[in-house]
């Protein structure tokens, strides 16, 4: 039979995932000759043989693609056979600009590597940096492309003879595993006190760490994308001491446990939650905590849900194996970000000793540099589907596929929960969680990631899209970038984000249920119904929540009692009746000042925010007068609901002066009246939630008839409320709406950068 030669160019996440050895094995199996190598255009594969053998290669290739590979494009052409070729070879990578190969996210330790670490006869027994092509660090150790050892933080660890042999053997699972190492040639561990004095090293450091944790000590532990602060999750004194030192009064603390059985002893887990926990990304999963589990009661004081994750690095596995030896089963460790307040997570040893010395008693350090900070990802399950709360390790920098190809655009995100987004063709690359840009350290991280993303993608943005707010550091960065600037209102960006995720082209009614964002009329938006047409690039505000003043501006977002007072003022209620308002015991003097501020409209911008409505109801019920973390008042309000209650408050749709409004002031009036009459807060909370859902559905039905549009897109931080996230889409679908929600990004402000970049692509389309 005549010989043929096929040439393939494959793009996507195909570096550092065992792709070339997979191709090599498929070629050997099919008995074809040729070559495979990484190039700027993608992975280049050339195979030569008879037609039946080439088809056998293609069948094997298609059926056994490595689990970590993510193919974006797969182009094939027929070329002329090469005479005399007698083998299949893996060639060295070639560099260059304009590459189409993606860097893989970091991947949890695979079962084979865990088995190596637990085998006393294996040279990697209890070695805390064991990995192979199927697992280990990728993104966080990569300096530049291509993803080869010389371009990672492993470049300073020359391979020993045994590791070099594995690295060069195409049939070994560690072939071209860039972080490949062993105790002889790889990174080392050591334990220090808070001054940096070394106490012990390597395996002894792990043993001493386990002992210190069981003694109630607080440790800082260097991980994959940064440091964790760690303590025994069963020890209430240690947990409280961690909260005190970290200045984290009430915000939930995540735990890590050894395996799924341990997680089941602490949490009630659905099948979908189990799959998330045990997947290769290993995120923190918010699951319902079991009562009387033996965990410290202060881990998650405001909610019945607990953040739990399983080990994802070799060091974690070795540490939990050591804890198992102690006889305390199942072990559970608090694993929270190694930072203070909203600062970025620490990534360097000296940085951690300097910044965390007032928190940690001891430090477990190693000498493999973390090049890119990356927090743990956080997800929950809504209707058996994952919903992101924070997208970072395990998922970044995997792209989001867009509906259309387009020019490169940079979205610089908002002030809080900032992320960046760069588009490349029909893909959008959203950065890991950066944080709140009102901290200069976070702004430095923002600039680092902008430069790094642009470098590894090798793109030059043609425009930058930013928020309307002139004082955001991200806005200032955009204006100083030298690129053409496109402003986009905060909540329209929310809707563009969810439409981009769903690859929706055309018209949609967007419900932006959020905190506050500067509107194009100068007021503070946050409870908006918006018309967005991605084909015609039409933006229009269709409706809003009732407007209420924010007494003191930003102060009101930190003190929900002010918001309750503002709602009462809007209802004409200036003084309590026989039942004193819940906040008067602490804030009686301040309440008088706020009354004057509201009466004179001093520093009290108007807001239609949905998030601030939840805060006001929470304060009215005495649940939260002052927050210690964002969303606390709403979390408490949702947590107390009596799910058996069927009553629904009225939330009318009204119209005046050409403005459609969801009368959320009337909704609050019913909350106040039933609180005044002594109704249980649990009942009021449930009726409020159901009333808001009912009102939103009737609003959408009203707008759908007016706009001839049945597609409804949901976004905004309030969509993290599990009741709304579950019941609102169901109720809308029952009315015949096509409902679009976030599945690849959080609904909170972390999605803003995607919406900005997607909008910018649409504007620049020829």
TrEMBL record:
Reaction it catalyzes: an acyl phosphate + H2O = a carboxylate + phosphate + H(+); C-terminal L-cysteinyl-[HypE protein] + carbamoyl phosphate + ATP + H2O = C-terminal S-carboxamide-L-cysteinyl-[HypE protein] + AMP + phosphate + diphosphate + H(+)
Entry-linked Pfam families: Acylphosphatase, HypF_C, HypF_C_2, Sua5_yciO_yrdC, zf-HYPF
GO molecular function (one): acylphosphatase activity
Transmembrane feature ranges: none
Keyword Hydrolase: yes
Alphabetized UniProt keyword annotations: Hydrolase, Ligase, Metal-binding, Zinc, Zinc-finger
Stated family: Belongs to the carbamoyltransferase HypF family.
Domain YrdC-like: 203-394
EC number: 6.2.-.-
All copies of domain Acylphosphatase-like, residue ranges: 5-92
Lineage: superkingdom: Bacteria
Organism of derivation: Desulfomicrobium norvegicum (strain DSM 1741 / NCIMB 8310)
Gene3D superfamilies associated with the record: 3.30.110.120, 3.30.420.360, 3.30.420.40, 3.90.870.50
Catalytic residues of the enzyme: 20, 38
Protein name in the entry: Carbamoyltransferase
Catalytic EC class: ligase
GO biological process: protein maturation
Pathway: Protein modification; [NiFe] hydrogenase maturation
Matches recorded under PROSITE patterns: ACYLPHOSPHATASE_1, ACYLPHOSPHATASE_3, YRDC
């Amino acid at each position: 039979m005549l010989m043929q030669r096929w040439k393939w160019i494959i793009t996507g996440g195909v570096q550092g995932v065992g792709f070339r050895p997979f191709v090599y094995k498929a070629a050997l199996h099919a008995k074809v000759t040729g070559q495979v190598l990484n190039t700027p255009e993608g992975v280049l594969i050339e195979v030569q043989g008879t037609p039946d053998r080439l088809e056998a290669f293609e069948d094997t290739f298609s059926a056994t693609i490595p689990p970590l590979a993510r193919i974006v494009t797969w182009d094939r052409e027929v070329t002329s056979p090469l005479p005399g070729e007698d083998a299949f070879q893996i060639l060295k990578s070639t560099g260059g600009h304009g590459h189409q190969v993606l860097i893989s996210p970091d991947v949890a330790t695979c079962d084979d590597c865990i088995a190596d670490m637990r085998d006393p006869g294996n040279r990697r027994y209890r070695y805390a940096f064991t990995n192979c092509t199927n697992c280990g660090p990728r993104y966080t150790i990569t300096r530049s492309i291509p993803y080869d050892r010389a371009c990672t933080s492993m470049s300073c660890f020359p391979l020993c003879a045994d590791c070099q042999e594995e690295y060069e053997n195409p049939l070994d699972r560690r072939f071209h595993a860039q972080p490949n190492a062993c105790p002889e040639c790889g990174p080392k561990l050591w334990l220090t006190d808070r001054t940096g004095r070394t106490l012990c090293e390597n395996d002894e450091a792990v043993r001493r760490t386990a002992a210190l944790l069981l003694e109630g000590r607080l440790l800082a532990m260097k991980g994959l994308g940064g440091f964790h602060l760690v303590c025994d999750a069963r020890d209430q004194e240690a947990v409280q001491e961690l909260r005190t030192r970290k200045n984290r009064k009430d915000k939930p603390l995540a735990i890590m446990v050894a395996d799924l059985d341990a997680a089941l002893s602490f949490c009630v887990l659905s099948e979908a939650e189990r799959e998330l926990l045990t997947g290769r990304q290993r995120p923190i999963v918010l699951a319902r905590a079991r009562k009387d589990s033996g965990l410290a009661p202060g881990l998650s004081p405001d909610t019945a849900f607990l953040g739990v994750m399983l080990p994802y690095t070799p060091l974690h596995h070795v540490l939990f194996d050591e804890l198992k030896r102690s006889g305390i089963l199942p072990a559970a460790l608090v694993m929270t970000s190694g930072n203070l307040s909203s600062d970025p997570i620490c990534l360097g040893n000296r940085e951690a000793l300097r910044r965390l010395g007032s928190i940690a008693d001891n430090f477990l350090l190693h000498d493999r540099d973390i090049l890119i900070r990356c927090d743990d990802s956080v997800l929950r399950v809504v209707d058996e589907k994952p919903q992101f709360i924070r997208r970072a390790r395990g998922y970044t920098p995997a792209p989001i596929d867009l509906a259309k190809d387009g020019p490169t655009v940079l979205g610089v995100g908002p002030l809080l929960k900032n992320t960046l987004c760069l588009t490349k063709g029909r893909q959008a690359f959203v950065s890991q969680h950066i944080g709140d840009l009102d901290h200069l350290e976070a702004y430095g991280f923002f600039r680092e990631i902008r430069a790094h993303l642009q470098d590894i993608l090798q793109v030059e943005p043609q425009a930058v899209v930013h928020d309307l707010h002139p004082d955001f550091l991200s806005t200032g960065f955009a204006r100083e970038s030298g690129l053409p600037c496109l402003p986009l209102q905060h909540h329209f960006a929310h809707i563009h984000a969810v439409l981009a995720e769903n690859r929706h082209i055309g018209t949609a009614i967007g419900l932006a249920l959020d905190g506050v964002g500067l509107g194009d009329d100068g007021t503070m938006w946050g409870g908006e119904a918006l018309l967005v047409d991605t084909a015609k690039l039409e933006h229009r505000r269709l409706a809003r929540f009732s407007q209420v003043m924010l007494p003191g501006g930003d102060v009101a977002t930190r003190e929900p009692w002010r918001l309750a007072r503002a709602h009462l003022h809007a209802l004409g209620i200036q003084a309590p009746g026989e039942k004193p308002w819940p906040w008067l015991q602490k804030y009686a003097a301040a309440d008088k000042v706020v009354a004057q501020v509201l009466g004179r409209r001093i520093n009290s911008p108007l807001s239609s925010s949905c998030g601030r409505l939840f805060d006001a109801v929470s304060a009215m019920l005495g649940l939260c007068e002052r927050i210690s973390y964002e969303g606390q008042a709403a979390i408490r309000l949702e947590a107390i609901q009596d799910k058996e209650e069927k009553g629904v408050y009225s939330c009318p749709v009204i119209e005046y002066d050409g403005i459609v409004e969801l009368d959320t002031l009337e909704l609050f009036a019913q909350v106040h009246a039933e609180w005044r009459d002594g109704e249980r807060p649990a009942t009021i909370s449930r009726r409020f939630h159901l009333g808001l859902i009912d009102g939103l559905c009737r609003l959408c039905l009203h707008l759908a008839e007016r706009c001839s549009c049945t597609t409804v897109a949901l976004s905004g931080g309030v969509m993290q409320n599990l009741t709304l996230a579950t019941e609102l889409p169901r109720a809308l679908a029952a009315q015949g709406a096509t409902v679009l929600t976030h599945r690849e990004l959080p609904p909170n402000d972390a999605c803003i950068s995607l919406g900005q970049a997607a909008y910018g692509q649409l504007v620049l389309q020829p």
